[in-house]
Specification:
It contains four helices and ten strands; from the N terminus they run βαββαββαβββαββ. By secondary structure, the protein is an alpha+beta fold. The strands form two sheets. Strands 1, 2, 3, 4, 8, 9 and 10 form a seven-stranded mixed sheet that branches. Strands 5-6-7 form a three-stranded antiparallel sheet, with no helix packed on it.
């Protein structure tokens, strides 16, 4: 059995700015109004014979969307981003989060941003592809605490209507 949650209709959305370092057009700071679609496949079980309670998914994903909403998404593991006073292999992302201002360069362009306006993601890119993996990994971790009947979780992060990336994570038993 598979359950589906449509991100637009369920209100699983966020608006963020990002950049894809090295890309000819997406290398500039720009934004999207994202929405997140979810598919969970597994056996029906439990008191109500659910695959998963919709509310468990929606409340968790909505909270993650709120964390990203109206922020600039920074892919900390991108090799083209040079941070000032931050060593990617040694320092924790908390160092960036706790700074008043974050300073970095991309392709020779310097940026100084208030850290509170940023979300520092342990990703190489903030593409729809990487964001779909990010959401799927978080959702697998969360649902695994309560459910043992799930065979796969798919997340589609859409950059707008008709344009998104779908990632499916198979759960091994």
């Amino acid at each position: 059995m598979k359950i589906l949650i449509n991100g637009i209709q369920a209100g699983l959305r966020f608006s963020s700015a990002h950049l894809i370092p090295g890309h000819s057009s997406c290398g500039h700071i720009h934004g999207h109004s994202y929405f997140v679609d979810i598919e969970v496949e597994g056996e029906c079980s439990g008191k109500f014979d659910f695959v998963v309670d919709f509310q468990d998914i929606k409340s968790f994903i909505d909270a993650r969307c709120s964390e990203l909403d109206h922020r600039i998404l920074i892919p900390v593991q991108n090799n083209l981003i040079e941070f000032k006073d931050f060593k990617k292999l040694e320092d924790s992302i908390e160092k960036l989060e706790n700074a008043n201002t974050v300073h970095f360069k991309v392709d020779g362009k310097g940026y100084s941003l208030p850290s509170v306006d940023c979300v520092f993601l342990d990703l190489p890119y903030t593409s729809a592809e990487e964001l779909s993996k990010y959401f799927a990994d978080l959702l697998v971790e969360e649902l695994s605490k309560k459910y043992d009947n799930i065979s796969s979780i798919s997340v589609c992060v859409n950059e707008g209507i008709g344009q998104g990336a779908l990632y499916t994570k198979e759960l091994v038993e």
